[in-house]
Amino acid sequence: MTSEARPGHPDGAPPAYEWPAGKSAAAVVSVDFDGPTPYLWASRNSPKQLMGELEQRRFGPRQGVWRILALLERLQIPATFYVPGAIAEAHPAAVRTIVAGGHEIAMHGYLHERLDDLTPDEVGDILDRSMQALAAAGAAPPFGYRSPSWEMTPGAWEKLRTAGVRYDSSLMGHDHPYWLDGLVEVPVQWQLDDAIFYRYVHGSTRAPVPASVVMDDWVREVDAIGRFGGLAMLTVHPWLSGRAGRLVAFEEMLRRAGDHDGMWWATAAEVADHHRGRYQESDGSGTTEL
Ligand SMILES: [Zn+2]
Fold first, then answer.
1. How many Cβ atoms sit within 10 Å of the Cβ of residue 196?
2. E strands within the chain?
3. What contacts 109, CB < 8 A, 6 or more positions away?
């Protein structure tokens, strides 16, 4: 084969990732259903709470998540929702609708606690509490975990393993699923995260990037990942991408990207289960990495 037909696979490169039969790449729509929790966590020790950012973020559970759910229904795309426990407790109707739509619900902290602020024991307690909150809201026992703000520590990783989590989706060491210290990683990437383009709060130093620009780039990125046989992990936040113009642009982007032959649109749990079934952790090179 020519290098054009097998981009990224000259002699000595890792072999192409093997997807389910008939599929040559995968895409996941992931929805980080944060609402106001990141602000509540960040301001937990602050004597004052400002309503501006809280209300901006509350748009997510009030309106944005419903628009995203309707969009997924129109396009018949399964998605993975990462839901902080406090959001599940406050918005059980949204959780029920996510479940009824056939989507996956996975963990995302209780109050969007950053792992580098926590001891490993606190991480364990928060995992227990968020599992209970999701169950109380009607979700099935979660398989997966995504760390708030995509940060991770070795102590937290160990807690995820011992808590029975089957996959993590917070890290960027590959653009296809991979094993990392006893867990399947279903990787993310900043370029396909709406927050780095759209998040604008009081004091931000730059204006949000227009949705037309972001979604054009996402179509190109998903298409390129399709060529390389990887995983396109799209990440949207209802308080950001649920805004009217961005939602319409996201729908157009999904319709364009969805044309790709061989692209497997799946939940993160389905991708993780595929990886578990296809690859053993011992399949790795066994070399010690720097
Ligand atoms: Zn989040």
1. 12
2. 25-32, 79-83, 104-107, 144-145, 167-168, 178-180, 183-185, 231-236, 263-265
3. 37, 41, 84, 85, 126, 130, 147, 148
Tell me, in angstroms, the distance from the centre of ligand 1 to residue 1's CA: 42
How does pLDDT run across 95-114, given as a tens digit for each residue? Answer: 999 999 999 999 999 999 99
Domains of the chain: 25-42+58-280 (3.20.20.370)
Taking each helix axis from N to C end, the angle separating 120-136 and 154-162, rounded to the nearest 10 degrees, works out to 40
User: By the 8 A CB rule, do 148 and 114 touch?
Assistant: yes
175-184 pLDDT, tens digit each: 999 999 999 9
In one-letter notation, the amino acid at residue 76 is Q
Ligand 1 centroid distance, CA of 13 (Å): 34
Q: How far is the CA of 112 from the centre of ligand 1 (A)?
A: 6
Surrounding residues of ion ligand 1, Cβ less than 5 A: 32, 34
State in Å: Cα 7 to ligand 1 middle. Answer: 33
